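Notes to self after the Tuesday call (sharing in case useful).
The group wants a holo model before anyone commits to mutagenesis around the pocket. I volunteered. Ligand is nicotinamide-adenine-dinucleotide. Logging inputs and output together so the record is complete.
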Amino acid sequence: MFLSGKRALVTGSTSGIGLAVARALAAEGAEIVLNGFGEEADIARLRDEFRARHVGADLTTCEGCDALMDAAGPVDILVNNAGMQHVAPVESFPVEKWDAIVALNLTAAFHTVRRAVPHMKAQGWGRIVNVASAHSKTASPFKSAYIAAKHGLDGFTKTIALELARSGVTANCVSPGYAWTPLVENQIPDTMKARGLSREEVIDDVLLAKQPTKKFVQPAEIGALAVFLCREDAGNVTGANWSIDGGWTAE
Ligand code: NAD
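Result:
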């Protein structure tokens, strides 16, 4: 239980990858602060499971991010995971979707990091894990906002890693390929429309076509990688962008 006594804030931890990361950190003894949307009953169940606080702030605004950080208090581990996707050709990409995707997948990490860093620096220890994507390293059509935001998150992470390099605080991206979560499932209908494909063709010829292993990444595998980055002997691992994508970005 090497994370006992450490507080970990995981954004977007009511679902998918964030929930798996929260479970992996909690299994090592971390106190979890949950964030994200969901049905009241589901969130109550998660609060019980983790014996944790849940702060349901909307992270698409600066005020929402500040409210989250005010409620969370000082955090030792910050996992910026909340994200959203929209699939459409650039010429018809809804402007409000662009703004929301960039706000949540990129700008929210700036707001949480700027609030979390003073405590981490003062105590000489901290871990920042930003959940990016294979799409922080490579592109696919019809996902312009998401891919721009995730590339931006990679650059932001490298920059803060350099700024924090002597402070005991590390900052890394983890970059999954396709993991079977609501975020992926929900983009199937739009991808069918944008590419003129059936559901099965989207899964086999678009999603898994990217992954040489032909397997979806398991959210728990991403949790295990986040735990590794929190170890003492990962103190020199900073400014990196960790692929966990079944070989996608090796091609
Ligand atoms: P998900 O839809 O299962 O979970 C998203 C989480 O973010 C939920 O808890 C949701 O409530 C929360 N959220 C959404 N909008 C929010 C907002 N405005 N404010 C606060 N919280 C909000 O998605 P997921 O697949 O688990 O994705 C998690 C992260 O992993 C995202 O950053 C995503 O880009 C990234 N990612 C996912 C995949 C994949 O294949 N699933 C691949 C690469 C990267």
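Two things stood out.
The mean pLDDT is 97.
The CA atoms of residues 87 and 190 lie 6 Å apart.
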